[in-house]
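W.,

You were right to be curious about this one. When I first looked at the sequence I had no strong expectations either way, so I just let the prediction run and decided to look at it fresh. Below is the sequence, 566 residues in total, followed by the output.
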Amino acid sequence: MNVQTWTYIMVGLSFTLYIGIAIWAKAKTRRDFYVAGKHVHPILNGMATAADWMSAASFISMAGLISFMGRDGAVYLMGWTGGYVLLALLLAPYLRKFGKFTVPDFVGDRYYSQGARFVAIVCAIFVSFTYVAGQMRGVGIVFSRFLNVDITVGVLIGMGIVFFYAVLGGMKGITYTQVAQYCVLIVAYLVPAIFISLLMTDTLIPQIGFGGTLADGSGVYLLDKLNGLSAELGFNSYTDGHKTTIDVFFITAALMVGTAGLPHVIVRFYTVPKVAAARSSAGWALLFIALLYTTAPAVAAFARTNLLTTVSNMAYEQAPEWFKNWEETGLIKFDDKNKDGVIQYRGPNSDIENELTIDRDIMVLANPEIANLPNWVIGLVAAGGLAAALSTAAGLLLVISTSIAHDLLKKELMPNISHEKELLAARISAGFAVCIAGYFGLHPPGFVAEVVAFAFGLAASSFFPAIIMGIFSKRMNKYGAISGMIIGLIFTAAYIIYFKFIHPEWNTPSHWWFGISPEGIGTMGMLINFFVANVVSYRTAPPPLEIQELVEQIRIPRQEPKSQAT
């Protein structure tokens, strides 16, 4: 069978599974819709958290970034993995112990302020929509290549699937669907990596093959081969870093604390029955995440080596089938500038003009085709890419719907609304959120991992300081938290918008503030948030005594706070 047939089979089976689970796990109460009834087993919650966490950026784009950036791409591995450790140790157990449905719920009650709740709602919606744009773009890329449909049609199909199980099942349906999606995406990621590792290095384990010698008997290490190819074609050495130390630090920190501030990840720890289960599910999730994250550098190196040896200096008429297939999507573009019919793929250090443009987001998806793997593996990778994008998109859309229905309507505008009407409002909000997410997927402000990196920066500069100080500082009051969130978010968003959209020609280290790129400015926004919040807090009245006691109770082991009821 050809690639398209296999893709239809793999994607069709996976979609049928997701829809079946959504019907089986339909949310019947608002507790089911918001937190899956708080009855999810830690191992299952760990798998769901991993799927929620490993978005299209992790599955589709991260290895692509590393392929093009080389060692500099390690900031994504360090930041995203380290951030999850930070989340698991410092935030998850305490937020679960507080016992609320959402992050704005925590912020509103901890800072005894409807104003703080409203600011948190705005932050949650802003961050979530920024993040979900990358997921919907990933869905469109997979559909456009493997199912031979336009990216617009692909995004619309993805919207329909997410709409069905997010609106119908809520957090309960999403949780069990994400368990299935994790199984699909991790198998889809590891199988081609193992195949290619065997072909290139004669090693079964990709992580070992990454540092091993080539299988051609030359005794040359894979990374030495890649460095030589890169230098020969005018690219920077793959294993050398070219970012400044301060920018690497700030990007890594922004991704790290941004991870700990992402509302769709934090809410997963509300779905388990008790605090100990939150800690346990965090450990399981870290294990499940590590399976993909430790494989990504190997996949990146395999893909880059295969690409450089396959395409450059090849006559266009002799280009392999995979090249022509991806060219039809517009994600690979060949411009024969010297009219010699030869593909000149060259880097900035070459005297020969480059004629090939490659979208970074295709590297993982095209990798099995470049390596001539069986067609069923290619179809499996397509299903895995869709699973990664849809799982995260669903979690983000739930955050948006609960922020509107529970935090805005129930807690602020319509406090007397019935549970049934609140649940209906949540489903309607999810439907509208799907439509807006689809629009952003069709008109994204960048490639997948870039868009997601911005979302992390926004989360780092807004949510993280408010949450961490809300847990560990009895003195932090509502005035400080609100001021810090607003100023941190505005500063970070303004910096990103200025360099990425208003003056993209100035997006260079010489124009950046202290040499910090837009991807790393969230760390500076976080520091400004902490500074402003503390200054304002200590110049205003301290929190009420009951709030200080509540903060103290949250940190005491095996004792639930008195405000546990929701």
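Here's what jumped out at me. The beta strands are 314-315, 332-334, 342-343, 356-358. And, maybe more interesting for your project: The first strand starts at residue 314 and ends at 315.

Coffee later to discuss?

I.
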